Amino acid sequence: MLDRQDGIYLYASPSYLASAGEPLQPADLSLYECLGFRTVKAWTLNCPTTQTDMQIEVGGRFQLNSVGMMRRLATLDLGIVLTTEAMVADELASGRLQRVLPLWQGVPVPVYAITETRLLPAKTQRFIEFLRERLGQG
């Protein structure tokens, strides 16, 4: 799971929103260019104030396997990205990206480390411990 202090939100460039319009509700996202992973066809969003979850089918011209490339395409006015705030901190500070649908956030995605055996080399054990600490599952 992600660090609890690093939320997952929707972001787009001001220019993209000026040309495409800003979505007013999560269901509107199906009408926009959404920059996401090739294997993910829907985003699950949560509104903490109302405790509401929604699953929205998304799509677009660009389906990728790189979070960095998704961020880059968003800064190039090519769509909306769902990612952690830390991932786009520089772009937010410079004004190249802004939050979209600020009342809504993404749901954390579980991360698993699958190994062939429990007998792991020390460096592999340290790496898994690092992931547990960094991703918030001490």
- Major sheet: arrangement of strands: 5-2-6-1-7
If helices are DSSP runs of H or I spanning 4 or more residues, what is the number of helices? 4
CA distance, first residue to last residue: 10 Å
* Fraction of residues in β-strands: 15-25%
* Structural category: alpha/beta
> Within the CATH hierarchy, at the fold level, what is the topology of the largest domain?
D-Maltodextrin-Binding Protein, domain 2
- Summed up, the domain count is 2
CATH arch. level architecture of the largest domain: 3-Layer(aba) Sandwich
- Subunit organisation of the chains: single chain
Report the major sheet.
5 strands, mixed
Low-confidence stretches: 1-5
What is the molecular shape?
elongated
The helical percent reads: 25-40%
Per DSSP E runs of 2 or more residues, the count of β-strands stands at: 8
Radius of gyration: 17 Å
- Name of the level-1 CATH class of the largest domain: Alpha Beta
Order of helices and strands: EHEEEEHEHEEH
Look at the structure and give the mean pLDDT. 88
Domain LysR substrate-binding: 8-135
GO molecular function: DNA-binding transcription factor activity; sequence-specific DNA binding
Protein name: LysR substrate-binding domain-containing protein
Family: Belongs to the LysR transcriptional regulatory family.
